[in-house]
Sequence to fold (99 residues):
Amino acid sequence: MNTIELKKLIETVSNITKTQTDYVNGMDSLDVARKLSQLAYYIHKNFYLHFNNNWYPQETVDNTIKLLGRKFADMKPSKEPRTTEIRRKNLDPRNYTMP
Fold:
């Protein structure tokens, strides 16, 4: 890959990233919560499929979001740094952690 092709690729990826960021920033916070929950389940999709045919319990997630309402969606983001170790602990199914 030469320099010109690399610059075109970087520009394309940058445009895609901007489009995705604008899309997410335009979403309602509850819709973002739904999408993030789906991503969290997707990370462990093979684990869930091993025990069940349904890797993403959409009805359960929707009911939980309805029950909790805006309680968590409207929380201000934490100001403490999100280190790799903290993210690793949050994604580890052996841990029960809340960010």
Summary: DSSP finds five helices and no strands in the chain. The longest helix spans residues 3-25.
